[in-house]
Amino acid sequence: MSVNWANILLDTGIDVPIQKPQFNIQCPFHEDTHASCSINVDKGKWICFVGCGQGSLQTLVQRILGLSKEAIEMYLMEKTLVFDIDMFDEYTPLSNDALPEVEFPFTKGYVPWWIFDRGFTKEVLKEWDCGVDDYDNLIIPIKDRTSRLVGWVTRHYDRNPKYMYSKGLKKSQVLFGEHKIKPSPFICITEGTLDTMWLDQHGFSSVAILGVTLSRNQQEALINLPTDELVLCLDNDEAGEIGRDKAMACLSKSFVVSYIQIPNEYKDVQDIRNKKILNELIESRTFW
Length: 288
Fold this sequence. Notes:
It is a single chain. By secondary structure, the chain is an alpha+beta fold. The chain has three domains: 83 residues, Zinc finger, CHC2-typedomain (DNA Primase, Chain A); 64 residues, DNA primase, catalytic core, N-terminal domain (DNA primase DNAg catalytic core, N-terminal domain, Alpha-Beta Complex); 110 residues, 3-Layer(aba) Sandwich (Dna Topoisomerase Vi A Subunit, Chain: A, domain 2), CATH 3.40.1360. Helix content is 27%, strand content 18%. The chain contains eight helices and 14 strands. Strands 5-6-7-8-9 form a five-stranded antiparallel β-sheet, with no helix packed on it. It has a five-stranded mixed β-sheet with strand order 11-10-12-13-14, sandwiched between helices. It is globular.
């Protein structure tokens, strides 16, 4: 069985740097302030240098998802079949019927208390139809451009990976927040859902590409946005820089493209709680 470990890890919520077979992350099995876990997607191996374990990426994903040996083997088999079928998925044209509509199996109108510690207001959480699950995790609905519910993202409070996407959701075929976009002088592009919601709360039009990789489908969707300028607000890390450079090359033929320089003390735009600093960053954006 040939497994695309980069895609598997992305589905578990781990950001995989583009074209980088080996990289380090914060270990998902202990409170980690440094990137002490090394992953090699070419060799299919991982190791935590603090002592949480090492071995095949199958065992890593098995521990993260909490699956039995039999269940992880079935999971990988299903994923491999999907990858074989959708190998060239990013080159298929956009379609309103590309993703099936789903039911939202969580409680709406309630959100976990900890999300307010991150600065979000009740109004914006309600506007985005957020909910909560039985484990006090935030559930963020993902809708397509026609406002159909096509999946959701679970933002965990106190476990890694922090983000988990609903089964069957093809992130490459959707722009999070696209259904809310109105004509605007510029639109911000982020990696994650909370980043886009945060910018929206502060009056900036924004969509998220749900990761650092910009697919062909997402490029086509961006081209149809009602604006003349796209502002890249990707995470303040190596993967974000690589994604920014690739996105600028892809989009500069259709838009004025700019980007913000996030100060070293912040990891992403949602980490910037000071509205004045956030406004100044966007106002002083760099044009490509």
